[in-house]
């Protein structure tokens, strides 16, 4: 259920084999087990390192159910998102929080964001403690009232420690959530915000063992047709209640013969659209895991071709016993790709019951729709939420009619590989007390999600 939101004309501007930001668009061949109605499209992105130290992702993609042609624009949109997110300005302000405060500048303090627990700072840990006295680089942003606010540049941009920033302090993991592209600034900001909420809610649900409400798949429009195309898959769908009252969904697909799981999540005001978005993610994760089932699978070939980092996956294990590689405290699970790969190890599969809670399933119609644009305006306009937005659109992308936004929500939890959990945040207790008021027996698990 792909929905068109872009004007197709921008593809003519951005896609060209010689001088396009995207050199090529192509549909990806999928395993025969995948439903016929599901498609993946990949955009091959030009390499700006030919003329700069600007590091852009080599590929971007989009997947979904429906017509392949509806995926071309979202794939280019994701390419634009990564392209702009990696274009880091050279004129960022360098100052310490104390200097900014003395100058009367408004800023988001790095201490406002979720942080690592002190126990993680060992010799092997790749990040260092944040020093509030040290000057850092700041990006200009807009707060919830439309006023200028400075935000840590490392929270805005991707692949931060490159080029002239190679020796900047490494105090946190990359901010995966909260950057999005769209046909308008408002669209991009809303998409980025929805992603922040999705990751916050799913991280808390999984790590705290919070309850969820199972949805009867038979009540989801179009599900009967999907099941007919994928008879060997078990499909589970959850609604995740949360403090913000926004519809967040989880989906698990599990192939009984190959014993491969894949999970997906979404935050969407329209429940049916949210479920299908989560299912799209789940099948995409499943396909990625199928690609590392064998040593010559598509995942390992992508690493060999330089399309993915050599550290993305664990070395292939014919017996699928990946837990031995993860480390006692998951310290070797440093990438979302290898985090999902762990779930090829069937010793983890009992934990998939989190997606199959006991009790009566509800109909999808029982989940209320939410006006997400209004929810975003309300959340952004609440001063205590400390929201900031950054327009990271480059001139060439803007000329094509696209916009890319970074949204910072320091109160919300990010997603992270299990080696880098952020245990220091009051947000954990907000989620816990929403489900268990008055109960202080909260424990945070670093068990990896079957998601990437």
Automatic annotation (TrEMBL):
Protein origin, superkingdom: Bacteria
Segments forming domain YcaO: 62-452
Pfam family, one: YcaO
InterPro entries xrefs: YcaO-like_dom
Stated name of the protein: YcaO-like family protein
Biological classification of the source: Bacteria, Bacillati, Actinomycetota, Actinomycetes, Mycobacteriales
């Amino acid at each position: 259920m792909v929905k068109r939101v872009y004007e197709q004309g921008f593809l003519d501007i951005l896609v060209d084999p010689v001088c396009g930001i995207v050199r090529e668009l192509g549909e990806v061949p999928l395993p025969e087990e995948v439903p016929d109605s599901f498609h993946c499209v990949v955009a091959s992105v030009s390499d700006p390192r030919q003329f700069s130290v600007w590091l852009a992702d080599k590929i971007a993609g989009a997947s979904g159910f429906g017509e392949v042609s509806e995926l071309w624009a979202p794939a280019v949109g994701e390419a634009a998102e990564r392209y702009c997110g990696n274009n880091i300005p050279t004129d960022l302000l360098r100052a310490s929080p104390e200097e900014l405060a003395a100058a009367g500048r408004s800023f988001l303090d790095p201490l406002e964001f979720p942080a690592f627990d002190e126990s993680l700072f060992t010799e092997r840990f790749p990040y260092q403690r944040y020093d509030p006295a040290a000057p850092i680089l700041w990006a200009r942003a807009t707060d919830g009232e439309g006023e200028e606010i400075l935000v840590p540049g490392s929270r805005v941009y991707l692949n931060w420690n490159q080029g002239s920033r190679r020796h900047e302090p490494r105090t946190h993991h990359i901010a995966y959530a909260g950057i999005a592209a769209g046909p308008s600034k408002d669209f991009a900001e809303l998409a980025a915000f929805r992603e922040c909420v999705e990751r916050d809610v799913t991280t808390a649900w999984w790590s705290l063992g919070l309850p969820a409400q199972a949805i009867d798949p038979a009540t989801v429009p179009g599900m009967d047709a999907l099941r007919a195309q994928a008879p060997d898959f078990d499909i589970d769908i959850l609604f995740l209640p949360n403090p913000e009252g926004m519809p967040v969904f989880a989906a698990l697909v599990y192939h009984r013969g190959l014993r491969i799981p894949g999970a997906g999540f979404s935050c969407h005001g329209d429940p049916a659209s949210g479920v299908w978005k989560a299912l799209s993610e789940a099948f995409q994760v499943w396909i990625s895991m199928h690609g590392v089932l064998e040593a010559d699978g598509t995942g390992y070939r992508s690493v060999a071709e330089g399309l993915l980092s050599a550290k993305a996956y664990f070395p292939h294990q014919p017996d699928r016993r990946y837990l031995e590689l993860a480390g006692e405290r998951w310290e070797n699970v440093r990438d979302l790709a290898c985090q999902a790969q762990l779930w090829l190890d069937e010793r983890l599969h009992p934990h998939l019951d989190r997606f199959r809670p006991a009790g009566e399933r509800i109909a999808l119609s029982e989940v209320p729709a939410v006006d997400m644009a209004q929810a975003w305006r309300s959340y952004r306009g609440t001063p205590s939420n400390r929201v900031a937005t950054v327009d990271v659109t480059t001139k060439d992308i803007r000329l094509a009619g696209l916009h890319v936004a970074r949204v910072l929500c320091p109160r919300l939890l990010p997603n992270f590989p299990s080696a880098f959990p952020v245990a220091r945040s009051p947000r954990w207790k907000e989620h816990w007390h929403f489900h268990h008021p008055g109960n202080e027996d909260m424990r945070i698990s670093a068990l990896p999600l079957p998601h990437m």
